[in-house]
Amino acid sequence: MKKKNLLFVTPFFPSFVRSDIQLLQETHAVRINRYPWQHKALAPLFFFLQFFSVLYHIFRTDAVLISFGGYWSVWPAVFGKLFRKKTLIILHGTDCASIPELGYGSLRIPLLKMACGLSYRYASDLVPVSESLAGTELDFDPAIRNRFQGIRHHFPAVTTPIHAVHNGFDPDAWPFEQVENKAPGSFLAVMSAAQYRLKGGDLIAAVAPSFPEYQFTIVGMDAPETTHPVNLRFVGKVPQAALARLYRQNRYYLQLSSFEGFGCALAEAMLSGCIPIGSSVNHIPAIIGNNGFVLSKKDPGMLRQLILQLVNLTDPEKWALNARRHIIASYSLAFRKQELTQLLHGHAKQT
């Protein structure tokens, strides 16, 4: 059977976008539309060029899939609507939020919010990676003034159907050996420098001195210029193989985000046998399930108590195995592929 043509639009290629492309290439002839939108000064030029590129390809495609809402999603959504092409926008988090206190969220920028709103209005379906991106109330971080976030809060007039489809993961890419290979008292977190406060790096720095016998590691950023605890080390950006090795070497994982679209690193760490502590925001508690602990407030004292509970768990091997089994059972690549394919060619229940 001849594969249907799919126009895949993305501003960049994080691992979860590459995964979606690989999944959809099994059932579609995928043509990728991508410009380096991170160069903000050139965004007007890319917007102009994309108009003609999408217009040319829209007649040769059966459906359009856009990853992230933004300037790049406007023309694909408009032309998809105009020429009656099924058009999905996968939403990952920043395109559903406005949190200026943490410098986070595309929707805090008026022109970018306008582009997102127009795109969401004309798309056939909106596909957030968790139900919380449709609408959620944040009460974890007291620094956040606007506790209400999500598509329905920021765009109450948009009536486009919303279908949450969780991210999926390949267990073979994130192997688990055994707890004995993990250093006792070793804690890991993943974040970029721009995400330091958003993902709780400041909270980790606050509690690390209370546990001088434990090692805390943050991957994805270099050490900040400000002073930090001696038992908190920073590892810059690393390739996937090195990250998988770090997951296997560390016994515990910290996902202390004030807002989190999904929590891919958390799921990867749990596949690798890390026992987690996560914040009580968005989809993080569902990812953890009964296989770790959930921190209800961004409070150093409460985190210290959870860390003490974590390191005193009996049978950590069982906890690690259960964490891996939970992710395998709940977030499979096969299910994500099935759901996306159904949305592109059929129907699904609205969130």
From TrEMBL:
Keywords assigned: Membrane, Transferase, Transmembrane, Transmembrane helix
Record InterPro entries: Glyco_trans_1
Positions of transmembrane segments: 41-59
SUPFAM superfamilies attached to this UniProt entry: UDP-Glycosyltransferase/glycogen phosphorylase
Alphabetical GO biological process terms: lipopolysaccharide biosynthetic process
UniProt-listed Pfam families: Glycos_transf_1
Residue ranges of every copy of the Glycosyl transferase family domain listed in the record: 178-325
GO terms of molecular function: glycosyltransferase activity
Protein name, per record: Glycosyltransferase involved in cell wall bisynthesis
